[in-house]
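Researcher: Good morning. I'm working through a list of sequences from a screen, and I'd like to move beyond sequence-only analysis. For each chain I'm collecting a predicted structure so we can compare shapes side by side. This is the next one on the list. No need for commentary yet; just the structure.
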Amino acid sequence: MANSTSDIFRNNLKFYRNKQGYTQERLSEICNISTDYLSQIERGKRTPSFKRMELLAKALNIEVYKLFMPLQ
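Model: Good morning. Structure tokens for this chain:
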């Protein structure tokens, strides 16, 4: 069964964060959000606004669409 879009987003966010070598704390600092909020996003407890998604993608040096593309 395919992952849901939200599962793909959460997994990709964590994948690209780790790829950049960022901890949740560091990415939170860069994006000016709380570490708790980022943790909730990665666990599927919160859904960020599109503006916040853009900030996260920029901090991870990727285009926003990559957060929604299944990893190969």
